[in-house]
Amino acid sequence: MAEEEGPTVELRQRKKLKSSENKESAKEEKISDTPIPEKAPKHVLFQRFAKIFIGCLAAVTSGMMYALYLSAYHERKFWFSNRQELEREITFQGVYELTHNNKTVSLKTINAVQQMSLYPELIASVLYQATGSNEIIEPVYFYIGIVFGLQGIYVTALFVTSWLMSGTWLAGMLTVAWFIINRVDTTRIEYSIPLRENWALPYFACQIAALTGYLKSNLNTYGERFCYLLMSASTYTFMMMWEYSHYLLFLQAISLFLLDSFSLEQSDKVHEVYKIYIFSLFLGYLLQFENSALLVSPLLSLVVALMLAKCLQLNVKKGTFIAKIMKVINFYLVCILTVILNIIMKMFVPHKENGHMLKFLEVKFGLNMTKNFTMNWLLCQESLQAPSQDFFLRLTQSSLLPFYILVLIICFLSMMQVIFRRINGKSLKETITLEDGRIGGRPEIIYHVIHTILLGSLAMVIEGLKYLWTPYVCMLAAFGVCSPELWMTLFKWLRLRTVHPVLLALILSMAVPTIIGLSLWKEFFPRLMTELMELQEFYDPDTVELMTWIKRQAPVAAVFAGSPQLMGAIKLCTGWMVTSLPLYNDDDLLKRNENIYQIYSKRSAEDIYKILTSYKANYLIVEDAICNEVGTMRGCRVKDLLDIANGHVVCEEGDKLTYSKYGRFCHEVKINYSPYVNYFTRVYWNRSYFVYKINTVISFQS
Fold this sequence. Notes:
The structure is a single chain. The strands form 2 sheets. A 5-stranded mixed beta sheet has the order 2-1-3-7-6. Strands 4-5 form a two-stranded antiparallel sheet. The model is unreliable at 1-5, 7-37 and 94-101 (pLDDT under 50). The protein contains 31 helices and 7 strands. Helix 25 (564-574) links the parallel strand 1 (559-561) and strand 2 (577-578). It has 702 residues and is mainly α. Belongs to the dpy-19 family.
């Protein structure tokens, strides 16, 4: 037995030694296969440094120049520095004062920071005090300075993203040029400074730039770590700045999921991004006063489903028939798990947020019909309509749209070519060179193609989403025309032989953007300079007079009722309490808005009086612009929508018949006859506004 055990032990030891030798030899082979970077000559290092330095300088300069341009344009358009404080607040158009009590909306205690998403203002106020700026600059100038500075970071991030994709900072310059020229369709900063998107989108652009770098195959360890940290910080900040940010991140997660499904990038990298999403969601949930909308968001359901699917995934050899079947099963498993998890979360997590959004989408896509005033009013908003022809015409005139379509088609076809090759089991080189002409094999490019298609599809349905898509168009088009790989891919398909394709690709990647840049300079630069030289007049004396009267004549405890937009301006400019606000993420406020809008309907004086007194209103403001509105879109005037909701319009054989035993309240109350004068007393009026005091003691006159 001892003799038999001896050879057995010796055999086991030999196997162990052999296996360890194999592992060591495999490691040695892996190390030997990895190319050892040779020390580059000094002149090459200097060229690289100079290229990076000039590119970074151009990126920072572009951002600073854009921020200065916005500041100068804003001053010329509104004469901001020469206006009184009240007039500045009117042109400012937003909620600046941070409130956390029951002095904003009557009979309602709201968390203004959470409900109005005032986290940016909260941060700005802390910075204002901490930096000692309160002794140097007025709060409103500090605020708009931060917002304009963020817009500078926005274009800088777009610059860097295009530079990373193309390898040349010339693409970044062209991106910024197209962004500024098409700024009517790329940003709303000119119309309303405090919009949440103006705070959030710069951070999203930084996140996309970091993600682009992170997905690159040839990135070193230190670059990966930097991109990962920047991506983590910008993702969380983006989520804190905008209540709808998780929907945009959901689209990004879908793009990454498809990228992973096509095996165009290591799964480990993509799943690291998923971890960032989960961390940001739960941290946001805690710091946003336990915001339940984040727990029931489709982003969380998708990411959890992807994590579960990865745990259930079997290790099979890539390229085999079983592996392909497993990919298909995994895809359907993720989709089914996402839906199931989202339903379960909504069953167990109490939530009210964004329920109206789902109803709106149902009506928007024809899945449901409604007479509800709020839904129909939202459908009539210009930003929620399909894009107009003028939008596409403007993008075409600046040459942006034609080049974008060209770049998108080439990248998409190249991507599909790579995918089919992988499905058929054909081996592809891991390191893509310029001579390969295979731009569709780069994971960061494919991610951007998928993402821009998703955003573009939504922008074709809802015009307001063009402000998410058009900056992407600028960046992708600029990358394409400046990328030698894209031109080389095209030449490979055309089988160009007369001229050396690599040389021609390099020439075109410099010549085409140069020609585009010169043509844009010649046509649009004079227009930009003219805009800065012209003094535009902002003239709204009626609103200024109204605000002045409220400050001087109205009691401090007075509560005002009127349209939500006007109430927001009154709260901002005077601080007086109001009955409603232009917020569309709260069901109670939406119902309030609809009830207050009844002042423009065909209802009795007694009905309107009961509605207003139920909200403890003391003053009513009737706007002539709404009462006598002449809408460009049929059936979209406020009074038309109210007539439909109240059943005062009946459609018979294609004709609309209006009937009600009462006249339109906003017209009748101006005539000053009974019973209207019994309930309401006019105390102030000008060309645009009529202010009525709501009588506490009703005196009936014959």
